[in-house]
Amino acid sequence: MLDVKNLQVAYGESEIISQLSFSVARKETLAIMGRNGMGKTTLMKALIGILKCRQGSVQVDGLDVAKFDSFKRVDSGLAYVPQGRQIFPTLSVEDNIRTGLVTVGKRKIDDWVYTLFPVLKEMRRRRGGNLSGGQQQQLAIARALVSEPKVLLLDEPTEGIQPSIIQDIARMLNELKKLRDITIVVSEQVLSFTLEIADRILVMEGGRFVHEDLRANVDEAKIHQYLAV
Amino acid sequence: MPLILATSFAELKDIFLMQGFAGFSLFAVFLLMALGLAIIFGQMKVINMAHGEFLTVGAYVTVFLSHMVVNHAPKLLPYYFPAAIVCAFVVAFILGYIVEIGLVKYLYNRPLDTLLATWGLSMILQQACRSLFGAREDTATLPEWMMGSWSPSEGLDIPINGMFLLALAIVMVLLVYALMYRSRWGLKVRATMQNRAMAGAVGINTKRVDRVTFALGCGLAGIAGAAFTTIGSVSPSAGSLYIVDTFIVVVFGGAASLLGTVLSAFTIAQSQSILEFFLTGVLAKIFVLVGVIILLMIRPQGLIASKVRR
Ligand SMILES: Nc1ncnc2c1ncn2[C@@H]1O[C@H](COP(=O)(O)OP(=O)(O)OP(=O)(O)O)[C@@H](O)[C@H]1O
Ligand SMILES: [Mg+2]
After folding, report:
1. Domain segments of chain B as ranges
2. Residues contacting residue A23 through CB under 8 Å, at least 6 positions apart
3. Distance (Å, whole) CA A39 – CA B129
4. Closest Cα of chain A to B34: distance in Å?
5. B242-299 per-position pLDDT tens digit
6. Distance from the CA of A44 to the center of ligand 2, in angstroms?
7. What is the ipTM score, two decimals?
């Protein structure tokens, strides 16, 4: 479903990712783990088109989107939940969700959104900026989901969020995977959360993958070692 | 003694009322200009120094149409003005669209370059108007019904065109409000304003939003130009006289707020108009400016600032 080949990403002269290749199967959830500054966000931004891909290809369901603007990538089936959430602070919760509907050309928010995120229903007339961190995270996920993506990109969804809400998010993602035909790429540092949702784990270090595990036979000790400073 | 005081008080009231209503024309022009400038600045942080020239363009379109009507279809004279408003908008919109594609879009995130480039553009547009229409001042022939005044009581004359422009400005504000806060396009604009990269990443074509927003801002200046023909005569430099006032209105109102822009345009147009009765135009302007500066010292964020955690 998602095929990345020889991806190269740089900020000016400093090349963060060079010659990265990986692919994610349909309905698979791939977790990318790594310590701070290892290039997870850089990879995510390059996939959604906020950063330019210097070289390489990014195929979504067979279509190479590496040269596309962000909005066209969303149109081609990618959706992005950024690290730090980045909801639109002065827009109401409803309007935040509606921005994700632009791609599919709808105005009405379907009921399943509020079924999946009951908090957002209570808060739907509030400004996004006045929600708590955990609520904003759910809003950012809802905003991404309404564009009906084939591939969902989640960048550290658990960052700065209390354990009970992390549990909620994990449960919600697993439910989503049952309901929909969706492929997920998630970057993480929290192993327990990752083990709950991922089918496969890649460990990233210095912009390349250094370790791979299927959830079925994951080597927790080894991954912990990679994540420890 | 009390009698004299009473009459002069009544006169004073009439003066205030009359100048106040006369101020509505100025208010309408300020408001339409400021609305366009604020939308463009809010959306892409571009300060459009050529904004005044879009007023000039709208004014010339109106004058041109009025000449056409006078010469070829005098029967239409009472009706042409609304059509002129629409044409002024359309021409300024199209010109703005072309300017965005040809110039402004290359300069996003380079505020100083944009300032210089749009200033240069304003020179070019002024010269173009001079070559096309001549340097002489030109006036639109207004329909009869806009010229008279209405006197509800003795000593009080309310110019009809002021009322007409007031209505026009109110309609435009409501339209812009509906567009920005009730339409899908407005949603795209507001999202892009707040976080451009993220707006793209949720599926909004931000470049197209930019183009249309810029053109819309210019179109509003074009309407201001049509309105302007009812209170002044047009020359190639007509718009440049308004650009500073427009900046003042936007800054004073707090750049991101529609209500702020309305209040600010109202305050500034009215104080200028009322003070002008007692002082010369320049002195009136100085008083207004001093007032604005003092208020901005007290409230640097402008009249209305948005209250939300960022
Ligand atoms: N705008 C930028 N300009 C230059 N270098 C950058 C920029 N953003 C990130 N970097 C560098 O790129 C590298 C990877 O950063 P990135 O944000 O992708 O890491 P990360 O794995 O997401 O870390 P974290 O877990 O802290 O979010 C870091 O060394 C960082 O210093
Ligand atoms: Mg990161």
Report:
1. 23-143+157-239
2. A2, A3, A4
3. 55
4. 22
5. 898 898 888 888 766 788 889 989 988 888 888 888 887 788 888 888 888 888 888 7
6. 9
7. 0.90
